[in-house]
Amino acid sequence: MAAAIIYLEKHSALSLQCQLRQKLVEAILSGVLPARKRLPSSRKLADQLKISRNTVLLAYQQLMDEGYLVSRERSGIFVNERIFDGKVELASAEELSSNKRNRWQHAFVRTGRNDSEFRVPLDWHRYPYPFLDNLFDTSLFPVHEWREASRLALGVREVNEWASFATDADDPQLLEEIRTKLLPSRGITASQNQILIVSSEQQALYLLCHLLVDSSKTVAIEEPGNPVFRQLVQNQQGQVHYQPVDDAGMQVDAGLAGCELVYVTPSHQLPTNATMPLERRQALLREAAAHNALIIEDDASLEHNFLGPPLPALRAIDRDDRVIYLSSLSKVLSPGLRLSYLVGPVEIINEARALRRILSGYPPRNNQRAMAYFLSLGHYDAFIRKLDNTLKSRWMALRDALNYNLHALAETVPAPGGTAYWVTVHDDIDVQELAGHAAREGILIEPIHQYYGTGIAPKNTFRLGITSLPKEKIKEGIRILAKLLRSLALPSASPAADIPLAYVSGDKLSSALANATLISSTVYGDPYTIDFNPNGDMVGRCGYQDEDCDTGRWWVEGDLLCRQWQEWVYGQRQQFRVVLIGNRIQWYNLDGELIVNGVLHAK
Question: Is residue 131 classed exposed, middle or buried when 0-12, 13-18 and 19+ CB atoms within 10 A define those classes?
Answer without folding.
Answer: buried
